[in-house]
Amino acid sequence: MNRINACRIGNTLLKIFLISTAILSCYYIWDLFKSPFGFSGFREDPAMFVAKVVLIVIVESVIFWIGIILVYINCNQLGIKWRVLGVLFGLVPIIHLIMLGKIIKTADDEVKYESKRFKLNKERKDKQVCKTKYPILMVHGVFFRDFEHLNYWGRIPDELKANGATIFYGEHHSASSVASCGEELAKRIKDIKAQTGCEKVNVIAHSKGGLDMRYAISKCGAYEDVASLTTINTPHRGCEFADFLLDKIPVAQKEAVAKAYNLGASKLGDENPDFIGAVTDLTHAACEKRNEEVLDREEVYYQSVGSIQTNPMSGRFPLNMSYLLVKYFDGRNDGLVGEKSFPWGSNFTMLEPHGKRGISHGDMIDLNRENIKDFDVREFYINLVSDLRQKGF
User: Would you say 48 and 82 are in contact if contact means Cβ atoms under 8 Å apart?
Assistant: First the structure.
Protein backbone atom coordinates (compact mmCIF):
# COMPACT_ATOMS: atom_id res chain seq x y z
CA MET A 1 0.00 0.00 0.00
CA ASN A 2 3.01 2.35 0.21
CA ARG A 3 2.80 3.06 -3.52
CA ILE A 4 -0.95 3.66 -3.36
CA ASN A 5 -0.60 5.95 -0.34
CA ALA A 6 2.04 7.98 -2.18
CA CYS A 7 -0.25 8.14 -5.21
CA ARG A 8 -3.12 9.28 -2.98
CA ILE A 9 -1.00 12.05 -1.42
CA GLY A 10 0.21 13.21 -4.83
CA ASN A 11 -3.30 13.24 -6.24
CA THR A 12 -4.60 15.19 -3.23
CA LEU A 13 -1.90 17.80 -3.81
CA LEU A 14 -2.92 18.09 -7.47
CA LYS A 15 -6.54 18.63 -6.43
CA ILE A 16 -5.46 21.30 -3.92
CA PHE A 17 -3.40 22.96 -6.66
CA LEU A 18 -6.27 22.89 -9.14
CA ILE A 19 -8.90 24.19 -6.69
CA SER A 20 -6.71 26.85 -5.08
CA THR A 21 -5.47 28.08 -8.46
CA ALA A 22 -9.05 28.35 -9.71
CA ILE A 23 -10.17 30.29 -6.60
CA LEU A 24 -7.17 32.63 -6.68
CA SER A 25 -7.57 33.21 -10.41
CA CYS A 26 -11.24 34.11 -9.98
CA TYR A 27 -10.40 36.46 -7.11
CA TYR A 28 -7.68 38.32 -9.00
CA ILE A 29 -9.78 38.55 -12.16
CA TRP A 30 -12.65 40.02 -10.11
CA ASP A 31 -10.27 42.39 -8.34
CA LEU A 32 -8.81 43.50 -11.67
CA PHE A 33 -12.08 44.37 -13.35
CA LYS A 34 -14.05 45.81 -10.43
CA SER A 35 -14.36 49.58 -10.28
CA PRO A 36 -11.96 51.30 -10.31
CA PHE A 37 -10.06 49.15 -12.85
CA GLY A 38 -6.83 47.59 -11.58
CA PHE A 39 -5.65 45.49 -8.67
CA SER A 40 -6.61 47.14 -5.38
CA GLY A 41 -3.60 45.69 -3.60
CA PHE A 42 -1.25 47.08 -6.22
CA ARG A 43 -2.70 50.57 -5.82
CA GLU A 44 -2.32 50.44 -2.04
CA ASP A 45 1.16 48.87 -1.82
CA PRO A 46 2.79 47.76 -5.10
CA ALA A 47 5.77 46.07 -3.44
CA MET A 48 3.64 44.03 -1.06
CA PHE A 49 1.27 43.07 -3.89
CA VAL A 50 4.11 41.76 -6.05
CA ALA A 51 5.61 39.90 -3.07
CA LYS A 52 2.29 38.19 -2.37
CA VAL A 53 1.87 37.17 -6.01
CA VAL A 54 5.42 35.77 -6.13
CA LEU A 55 4.82 33.84 -2.89
CA ILE A 56 1.55 32.42 -4.23
CA VAL A 57 3.25 31.32 -7.46
CA ILE A 58 6.06 29.64 -5.51
CA VAL A 59 3.69 27.83 -3.13
CA GLU A 60 1.39 26.71 -5.96
CA SER A 61 4.38 25.51 -7.99
CA VAL A 62 5.74 23.49 -5.08
CA ILE A 63 2.33 21.90 -4.47
CA PHE A 64 1.95 21.08 -8.18
CA TRP A 65 5.41 19.62 -8.73
CA ILE A 66 5.39 17.47 -5.60
CA GLY A 67 1.94 16.21 -6.57
CA ILE A 68 2.70 15.49 -10.22
CA ILE A 69 6.01 13.77 -9.42
CA LEU A 70 4.36 11.50 -6.83
CA VAL A 71 1.56 10.62 -9.26
CA TYR A 72 3.91 10.05 -12.22
CA ILE A 73 6.08 7.73 -10.13
CA ASN A 74 3.32 5.80 -8.36
CA CYS A 75 0.27 5.71 -10.65
CA ASN A 76 0.72 2.59 -12.79
CA GLN A 77 -2.52 3.12 -14.69
CA LEU A 78 -1.27 6.32 -16.32
CA GLY A 79 0.92 4.26 -18.58
CA ILE A 80 3.40 5.76 -21.02
CA LYS A 81 0.71 7.38 -23.17
CA TRP A 82 -0.78 9.76 -20.58
CA ARG A 83 2.60 10.54 -19.06
CA VAL A 84 3.92 11.65 -22.44
CA LEU A 85 0.77 13.59 -23.32
CA GLY A 86 0.89 15.31 -19.94
CA VAL A 87 4.43 16.51 -20.63
CA LEU A 88 3.73 17.53 -24.25
CA PHE A 89 0.61 19.55 -23.46
CA GLY A 90 1.60 20.77 -20.01
CA LEU A 91 2.05 24.35 -21.21
CA VAL A 92 -0.76 24.47 -23.78
CA PRO A 93 -3.68 26.58 -22.46
CA ILE A 94 -7.00 24.76 -21.91
CA ILE A 95 -5.56 21.43 -23.09
CA HIS A 96 -3.25 21.33 -20.07
CA LEU A 97 -6.31 21.53 -17.80
CA ILE A 98 -7.91 18.62 -19.66
CA MET A 99 -4.69 16.61 -19.27
CA LEU A 100 -4.49 17.42 -15.56
CA GLY A 101 -8.12 16.41 -15.09
CA LYS A 102 -7.45 13.09 -16.84
CA ILE A 103 -4.37 12.45 -14.72
CA ILE A 104 -6.27 13.21 -11.50
CA LYS A 105 -9.17 10.95 -12.48
CA THR A 106 -6.87 8.08 -13.48
CA ALA A 107 -4.95 8.30 -10.21
CA ASP A 108 -8.21 8.57 -8.25
CA ASP A 109 -9.59 5.44 -9.91
CA GLU A 110 -6.42 3.47 -9.20
CA VAL A 111 -6.33 4.51 -5.54
CA LYS A 112 -9.97 3.46 -5.06
CA TYR A 113 -9.48 0.19 -6.98
CA GLU A 114 -6.31 -0.88 -5.18
CA SER A 115 -7.61 0.20 -1.77
CA LYS A 116 -10.68 -1.94 -2.32
CA ARG A 117 -8.48 -4.92 -3.26
CA PHE A 118 -6.23 -4.37 -0.24
CA LYS A 119 -9.25 -4.32 2.06
CA LEU A 120 -10.68 -7.48 0.47
CA ASN A 121 -7.41 -9.40 0.84
CA LYS A 122 -7.05 -8.23 4.44
CA GLU A 123 -10.58 -9.41 5.31
CA ARG A 124 -10.03 -12.91 3.91
CA LYS A 125 -6.36 -13.34 4.82
CA ASP A 126 -7.05 -15.90 7.53
CA LYS A 127 -9.24 -17.96 5.19
CA GLN A 128 -6.30 -18.70 2.87
CA VAL A 129 -8.73 -19.27 0.00
CA CYS A 130 -5.90 -20.16 -2.43
CA LYS A 131 -4.10 -22.64 -0.16
CA THR A 132 -4.48 -25.69 -2.41
CA LYS A 133 -3.53 -29.24 -1.54
CA TYR A 134 -0.86 -29.15 -4.23
CA PRO A 135 1.33 -26.18 -5.22
CA ILE A 136 0.60 -24.15 -8.34
CA LEU A 137 2.91 -24.34 -11.36
CA MET A 138 2.42 -21.39 -13.71
CA VAL A 139 3.53 -22.07 -17.29
CA HIS A 140 4.22 -19.24 -19.72
CA GLY A 141 3.43 -19.13 -23.43
CA VAL A 142 5.65 -18.70 -26.47
CA PHE A 143 8.24 -15.91 -26.88
CA PHE A 144 8.48 -15.19 -23.15
CA ARG A 145 10.62 -16.37 -20.26
CA ASP A 146 10.23 -16.44 -16.50
CA PHE A 147 12.28 -13.44 -15.37
CA GLU A 148 12.68 -12.66 -11.67
CA HIS A 149 12.01 -8.93 -11.98
CA LEU A 150 9.57 -8.95 -14.91
CA ASN A 151 6.86 -11.45 -14.12
CA TYR A 152 5.05 -12.92 -17.13
CA TRP A 153 1.89 -13.15 -15.02
CA GLY A 154 1.91 -9.52 -13.89
CA ARG A 155 0.33 -8.89 -10.49
CA ILE A 156 -1.41 -12.27 -10.37
CA PRO A 157 1.19 -14.39 -8.49
CA ASP A 158 1.54 -11.92 -5.60
CA GLU A 159 -2.24 -11.86 -5.15
CA LEU A 160 -2.38 -15.66 -5.13
CA LYS A 161 0.43 -15.84 -2.59
CA ALA A 162 -1.31 -13.25 -0.41
CA ASN A 163 -4.27 -15.62 -0.30
CA GLY A 164 -2.28 -18.73 0.60
CA ALA A 165 -1.04 -20.16 -2.70
CA THR A 166 2.41 -21.69 -3.19
CA ILE A 167 3.69 -20.69 -6.63
CA PHE A 168 6.33 -22.13 -8.96
CA TYR A 169 7.15 -21.32 -12.58
CA GLY A 170 7.84 -23.48 -15.63
CA GLU A 171 11.25 -21.93 -16.40
CA HIS A 172 11.28 -23.57 -19.83
CA HIS A 173 12.42 -22.26 -23.22
CA SER A 174 10.74 -19.17 -24.65
CA ALA A 175 10.48 -20.76 -28.08
CA SER A 176 10.88 -24.42 -28.91
CA SER A 177 8.74 -27.28 -30.15
CA VAL A 178 5.87 -28.59 -28.05
CA ALA A 179 7.73 -31.86 -27.55
CA SER A 180 10.91 -30.14 -26.38
CA CYS A 181 9.07 -27.82 -23.97
CA GLY A 182 6.98 -30.72 -22.74
CA GLU A 183 10.09 -32.64 -21.78
CA GLU A 184 11.48 -29.58 -19.97
CA LEU A 185 8.27 -29.13 -18.00
CA ALA A 186 8.06 -32.79 -17.02
CA LYS A 187 11.58 -32.53 -15.60
CA ARG A 188 10.73 -29.23 -13.90
CA ILE A 189 7.81 -30.85 -12.08
CA LYS A 190 10.06 -33.68 -10.88
CA ASP A 191 12.44 -31.06 -9.50
CA ILE A 192 9.60 -29.28 -7.68
CA LYS A 193 8.47 -32.56 -6.13
CA ALA A 194 11.99 -33.31 -4.96
CA GLN A 195 12.38 -29.78 -3.59
CA THR A 196 9.09 -29.61 -1.70
CA GLY A 197 8.08 -33.20 -1.08
CA CYS A 198 4.67 -32.57 -2.66
CA GLU A 199 2.89 -35.46 -4.37
CA LYS A 200 1.62 -33.49 -7.37
CA VAL A 201 1.17 -29.97 -8.76
CA ASN A 202 -1.72 -27.97 -10.16
CA VAL A 203 -0.74 -26.44 -13.49
CA ILE A 204 -2.07 -23.16 -14.87
CA ALA A 205 -0.74 -22.74 -18.41
CA HIS A 206 -1.21 -19.83 -20.79
CA SER A 207 -1.27 -19.99 -24.59
CA LYS A 208 1.28 -22.47 -26.03
CA GLY A 209 2.14 -23.44 -22.46
CA GLY A 210 -1.11 -25.40 -22.42
CA LEU A 211 0.00 -27.45 -25.43
CA ASP A 212 3.41 -28.02 -23.83
CA MET A 213 1.80 -29.29 -20.62
CA ARG A 214 -0.64 -31.58 -22.40
CA TYR A 215 2.36 -33.15 -24.13
CA ALA A 216 4.26 -33.44 -20.84
CA ILE A 217 1.29 -35.19 -19.24
CA SER A 218 0.54 -37.52 -22.13
CA LYS A 219 4.00 -38.32 -23.52
CA CYS A 220 6.53 -37.57 -20.78
CA GLY A 221 4.93 -39.33 -17.82
CA ALA A 222 3.88 -36.14 -16.02
CA TYR A 223 0.37 -37.55 -15.52
CA GLU A 224 1.75 -39.12 -12.34
CA ASP A 225 2.79 -35.70 -11.05
CA VAL A 226 -0.07 -33.42 -12.17
CA ALA A 227 -3.38 -33.17 -10.32
CA SER A 228 -5.01 -30.62 -12.63
CA LEU A 229 -4.29 -28.68 -15.80
CA THR A 230 -6.02 -25.36 -16.43
CA THR A 231 -5.27 -23.90 -19.85
CA ILE A 232 -5.71 -20.17 -20.42
CA ASN A 233 -6.40 -18.99 -23.99
CA THR A 234 -4.55 -21.99 -25.40
CA PRO A 235 -4.81 -22.75 -29.16
CA HIS A 236 -5.73 -26.42 -28.74
CA ARG A 237 -6.83 -26.61 -32.37
CA GLY A 238 -4.17 -24.27 -33.62
CA CYS A 239 -4.20 -20.88 -35.30
CA GLU A 240 -5.20 -20.96 -38.96
CA PHE A 241 -3.60 -17.58 -39.59
CA ALA A 242 -0.26 -19.18 -38.61
CA ASP A 243 -0.70 -21.77 -41.38
CA PHE A 244 -1.30 -18.93 -43.84
CA LEU A 245 1.72 -16.88 -42.75
CA LEU A 246 4.13 -19.81 -42.76
CA ASP A 247 2.91 -20.76 -46.22
CA LYS A 248 3.15 -17.26 -47.71
CA ILE A 249 6.30 -15.82 -46.14
CA PRO A 250 9.42 -16.63 -48.21
CA VAL A 251 11.79 -19.19 -46.72
CA ALA A 252 14.68 -16.72 -46.65
CA GLN A 253 12.68 -14.23 -44.57
CA LYS A 254 11.48 -16.92 -42.17
CA GLU A 255 15.02 -18.13 -41.66
CA ALA A 256 16.30 -14.58 -41.11
CA VAL A 257 13.67 -13.88 -38.45
CA ALA A 258 14.30 -17.26 -36.82
CA LYS A 259 18.06 -16.69 -36.75
CA ALA A 260 17.67 -13.26 -35.16
CA TYR A 261 15.20 -14.52 -32.55
CA ASN A 262 17.21 -17.63 -31.69
CA LEU A 263 20.34 -15.52 -31.23
CA GLY A 264 18.56 -13.11 -28.89
CA ALA A 265 16.81 -15.88 -26.96
CA SER A 266 20.06 -17.77 -26.42
CA LYS A 267 21.58 -14.65 -24.84
CA LEU A 268 18.59 -14.42 -22.48
CA GLY A 269 18.94 -17.99 -21.27
CA ASP A 270 17.46 -20.39 -23.83
CA GLU A 271 19.96 -23.20 -24.38
CA ASN A 272 18.59 -24.32 -27.73
CA PRO A 273 15.83 -21.96 -28.97
CA ASP A 274 13.83 -23.03 -32.01
CA PHE A 275 11.65 -20.24 -33.42
CA ILE A 276 10.42 -22.21 -36.45
CA GLY A 277 9.66 -25.29 -34.36
CA ALA A 278 7.59 -23.24 -31.90
CA VAL A 279 5.60 -21.40 -34.56
CA THR A 280 5.01 -24.51 -36.66
CA ASP A 281 3.58 -26.34 -33.65
CA LEU A 282 0.97 -23.56 -33.29
CA THR A 283 -0.50 -24.11 -36.76
CA HIS A 284 -3.93 -25.65 -37.21
CA ALA A 285 -2.46 -28.56 -39.16
CA ALA A 286 0.14 -29.39 -36.50
CA CYS A 287 -2.36 -29.14 -33.63
CA GLU A 288 -4.94 -31.34 -35.34
CA LYS A 289 -2.32 -34.02 -35.97
CA ARG A 290 -0.96 -33.76 -32.43
CA ASN A 291 -4.45 -33.98 -30.90
CA GLU A 292 -4.76 -37.46 -32.39
CA GLU A 293 -1.60 -38.57 -30.61
CA VAL A 294 -1.48 -36.52 -27.40
CA LEU A 295 -4.39 -37.96 -25.45
CA ASP A 296 -5.75 -36.85 -22.09
CA ARG A 297 -5.05 -38.96 -19.04
CA GLU A 298 -7.89 -39.86 -16.72
CA GLU A 299 -5.62 -39.26 -13.74
CA VAL A 300 -5.60 -35.52 -14.48
CA TYR A 301 -8.43 -33.00 -14.23
CA TYR A 302 -8.52 -30.81 -17.37
CA GLN A 303 -10.29 -27.47 -17.70
CA SER A 304 -9.90 -24.44 -19.96
CA VAL A 305 -10.55 -20.70 -20.20
CA GLY A 306 -10.90 -18.35 -23.16
CA SER A 307 -11.64 -14.67 -23.76
CA ILE A 308 -12.67 -12.41 -26.62
CA GLN A 309 -11.67 -9.01 -27.96
CA THR A 310 -14.50 -7.07 -29.57
CA ASN A 311 -12.52 -4.87 -31.95
CA PRO A 312 -8.90 -4.02 -32.83
CA MET A 313 -8.73 -1.14 -30.36
CA SER A 314 -9.76 -3.30 -27.40
CA GLY A 315 -6.26 -4.72 -27.16
CA ARG A 316 -2.82 -3.19 -26.69
CA PHE A 317 -0.03 -3.45 -29.28
CA PRO A 318 0.61 -5.87 -31.00
CA LEU A 319 -2.78 -7.54 -30.42
CA ASN A 320 -4.58 -4.52 -31.84
CA MET A 321 -2.65 -5.14 -35.07
CA SER A 322 -3.23 -8.90 -35.30
CA TYR A 323 -6.92 -8.96 -34.36
CA LEU A 324 -8.36 -8.45 -37.87
CA LEU A 325 -5.99 -10.98 -39.46
CA VAL A 326 -6.90 -13.59 -36.86
CA LYS A 327 -10.59 -12.76 -37.25
CA TYR A 328 -10.43 -13.39 -41.00
CA PHE A 329 -9.10 -16.92 -40.51
CA ASP A 330 -10.30 -17.92 -37.03
CA GLY A 331 -13.40 -15.81 -36.36
CA ARG A 332 -13.95 -14.28 -32.92
CA ASN A 333 -10.63 -14.16 -31.11
CA ASP A 334 -8.51 -12.68 -28.33
CA GLY A 335 -6.05 -11.03 -30.69
CA LEU A 336 -4.12 -14.25 -31.34
CA VAL A 337 -6.28 -17.32 -30.77
CA GLY A 338 -9.68 -18.08 -32.26
CA GLU A 339 -12.68 -18.87 -30.06
CA LYS A 340 -13.13 -22.40 -31.36
CA SER A 341 -9.58 -23.29 -30.31
CA PHE A 342 -9.99 -22.53 -26.58
CA PRO A 343 -12.16 -25.36 -25.17
CA TRP A 344 -10.46 -28.38 -23.65
CA GLY A 345 -11.33 -30.72 -20.83
CA SER A 346 -14.44 -31.27 -18.75
CA ASN A 347 -15.03 -27.61 -17.91
CA PHE A 348 -14.73 -24.57 -20.19
CA THR A 349 -15.15 -20.93 -19.16
CA MET A 350 -15.62 -18.22 -21.80
CA LEU A 351 -15.04 -14.71 -20.55
CA GLU A 352 -17.39 -12.51 -22.54
CA PRO A 353 -16.52 -8.82 -22.69
CA HIS A 354 -18.66 -6.08 -21.21
CA GLY A 355 -19.02 -3.04 -23.45
CA LYS A 356 -16.39 -2.24 -26.05
CA ARG A 357 -13.19 -3.08 -24.13
CA GLY A 358 -12.99 -6.84 -24.56
CA ILE A 359 -10.41 -9.13 -22.92
CA SER A 360 -7.29 -9.85 -24.95
CA HIS A 361 -4.71 -12.64 -24.99
CA GLY A 362 -2.38 -10.39 -23.01
CA ASP A 363 -5.08 -9.22 -20.58
CA MET A 364 -5.46 -12.82 -19.38
CA ILE A 365 -1.95 -12.74 -17.90
CA ASP A 366 -2.11 -9.12 -16.72
CA LEU A 367 0.52 -8.29 -19.33
CA ASN A 368 -0.05 -4.53 -19.16
CA ARG A 369 -0.91 -4.38 -15.42
CA GLU A 370 -4.11 -2.63 -16.46
CA ASN A 371 -7.23 -2.33 -14.32
CA ILE A 372 -9.98 -3.26 -16.78
CA LYS A 373 -13.54 -2.18 -16.10
CA ASP A 374 -15.79 -5.17 -15.28
CA PHE A 375 -12.87 -7.63 -15.37
CA ASP A 376 -10.57 -8.00 -12.38
CA VAL A 377 -7.94 -10.43 -13.67
CA ARG A 378 -6.39 -10.92 -10.22
CA GLU A 379 -9.73 -11.80 -8.65
CA PHE A 380 -10.44 -14.14 -11.56
CA TYR A 381 -7.32 -16.19 -10.76
CA ILE A 382 -8.05 -16.13 -7.04
CA ASN A 383 -11.49 -17.59 -7.76
CA LEU A 384 -9.97 -20.12 -10.17
CA VAL A 385 -7.43 -21.37 -7.62
CA SER A 386 -10.01 -21.26 -4.84
CA ASP A 387 -12.22 -23.50 -6.97
CA LEU A 388 -9.34 -25.98 -7.39
CA ARG A 389 -8.97 -25.98 -3.61
CA GLN A 390 -12.66 -26.73 -3.16
CA LYS A 391 -12.36 -29.59 -5.65
CA GLY A 392 -9.68 -31.14 -3.45
CA PHE A 393 -6.67 -30.28 -5.58
Answer: no
Q: Using only C-alpha atoms, what is the Rg of the chain? A: 27
Provide the CA 168 distance to its chain's centre, in angstroms: 19
What integer pLDDT is reported at residue 39 of this predicted model?
Answer: 64
* Stronger pLDDT, 110 or 41, i.e. the higher one: 110
- Count of other CB atoms within 10 angstroms of residue 91: 8
How many CA atoms, within 13 angstroms, populate the side-chain half-sphere of residue 374?
A: 9
85-94, 212-221, 249-258: range with highest mean pLDDT = 212-221
Distance CA 76, CA 58 (A): 29
Domain spans of the chain?
A: 2-122, 128-390
Cα 312 to Cα 309: distance, rounded to the nearest angstrom:
8
Task: Please list, in sequence order, all residues whose beta carbon lies within 8 angstroms of the beta carbon of residue 274, skipping any fewer than 6 positions away.
Answer: 173, 175, 176, 177, 180, 262
In angstroms, rounded to a whole number, what is the distance separating the alpha carbons of residues 96 and 78?
16
Helix (H) or strand (E) holding 347: strand 347-351
H-helix or E-strand spanning residue 7: helix 2-33
Instruction: Give the span between the Cα atoms of 347 and 109, in whole angstroms.
Output: 34
Q: Amino acid identity of 258?
A: A
> Is there a contact between 166 and 138 (Cβ–Cβ < 8 Å)?
no
- Superfamily (CATH) of domain 128-390: Alpha/Beta hydrolase fold, catalytic domain (3.40.50.1820)
Q: Give the predicted TM-score (pTM) of the model.
A: 0.89
d(CA 340, CA 165) in angstroms, rounded, equals 31
In sequence order, the β-bridge partners of residue 187 are none
